[in-house]
Amino acid sequence: MNHPLRPAVLLAAFCFSGTLLADDIELIRFFEQRIRPVLVEHCFQCHSSAKKKRGGLLLDSRNGILKGGDSGPAIVPGKPAASLLVEVLEYEPDGIRMPPKGRLSPGVPKDFRRWIETGAIWPDSQSPPETPAGQQSSDARHWSFQPIVRPTVPKSPHSQWPRNAIDHFVLKRMIREGLQPAPTASPHVLVRRLSYDLTGLPPSAGQLQSNVTRPELQSPAKTIDELLASKRYGEHWGGHWLDGVRYVSDVGYYNFSDLGWRYRDWVIRALNADMPYSDFVTHQIAGDLLPPPNGQDVYADGIIATGVLAMGNYDDQESNKEQLYAEVIDDQIDVVSRQFLGLTISCARCHDHK
Description:
- With 354 residues, this protein is mostly helical.
- The chain contains 14 helices and no strands.
- The protein has 3 domains: 7-20 and 232-349, no CATH class; 22-117, no CATH class; 187-230.
- The longest helix is centred in the N-terminal third of the chain and has 21 residues, at 22-42.
- The chain is extended, with a radius of gyration of 26 Å.
C-alpha cells in the first residue's frame, strides 16, 4: 500500500538511527570508512595484539595508539603536525616511512590529519557477550525488530483529555511520572506550534489574525491543510531528509558535483507533491531503472533522485581507481542501510564472521 509522506512518518525515518549528535555520528562514520580500513589493511600485520607488536607499538586500539611505542606516542589528538603517525605516512625523506612496502595514496595522510585534528575519535568495539543457546540477544529483542501488534489502549481517569488512542498512552506515562496534562492551548499558541512544526517558520500575521479573531471559521484542521500546501513545508522537512543522506551544497572536504542542488530540489518537490513513501524510496534507490512517462525517452526525475547515491565522502582524485570504485560502493551501501533501514552494516568492511 502506498502511504503519503507526512510529518509523523518522516520524523520516524529521520530519527531512527539513534540519538548521537550529528557531528559525533559523522566523525564515527569517517573513522570507520577512512581510518580503520587503512589500519586493518596496512598496519595490523605488524602492530596489533592479534599479530605482532613491532617497535612496542599497537595500532588496534585508541589506548595503544595514544601510548605509542619505542618512538613515543603515535598521535597527539588535535595536533596532526605533532603526530608521528602522520609523519611516517607522508614518507618524509629523512624520517621513518610506513608502511615499508610502499607509500599509500596522498589522500591517506590527509585523512589521518583530519581524523587527528577532530579529536581522533575511536568508537568502542568490544565483542558482545555470548548469548546462551535458545535465547535471543539483546539486539534481537530490540523493539524495532518485534512484530507490529495492536496493544490494548489503557484506561484513564481523565476521560475528557484524550482525543485519540495515542493520547491514552501519553497520559498513562504522565500519570506514572506525577505530571498533569497541560491546559488546552489558545488559538494563538496552537497556530504558532503548527507553523513551526510543519514549515519551520513563524505564522504570518494573516494566519494569526484569522485563527485568533475568527476561530470558528479557521479550524486547526484547516490551518494544517494550509501549512501542508505551503512550499515551505517541503523545504523544512526536506532539510531533515537531506541531513540524513549527507547532502552538502558545496564541495566540502572532497569534490562534489555542483549539480547536487537538483537532488535537493527533487526531495522538496516530492514532499510538496505528497509522493507516497514507497515511491519516494524506490526513486532514490532505483530511479534510473523506472520506465519513463508516456511520450518521454528518459525519466529525468528518476535519474535525479538517484543523486543520493552519487554524494559521498570519498576522494575522486584517488589515483588507484579500483580503490576509488570500492570507496564509492562502500559509501552507497552505508547511506542506503542507514537511511532506509535504520541500521549500519559498515562493520562488514573490516569484519566478517568466518
